[in-house]
Amino acid sequence: MAMDPKVMFEKMDTDKDGVVTKSEQPQWQFFDRLDLNGDGKLTLEEAQEAFKKMMQQRPPGGGGGPGGGGAG
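The structure assignment produced for this chain is given below.
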């Protein structure tokens, strides 16, 4: 099932003003990298661009599941 960046963005925009700020997502250590224009607000367009870049960097095949326990 593919993630929808718009749906994710709407969940993160807790005050529903159309942007996500650091105060809405204080746990994000990477907020500044997503905020492409550096205005302290993450727009839907910035979120979609970041999502697109992340998807391009993912290895093909979806990453697999949990590792095996091995013979013991």
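Interim note for the steering committee: The chain has one domain: 5-57. The longest helix spans residues 44-57.
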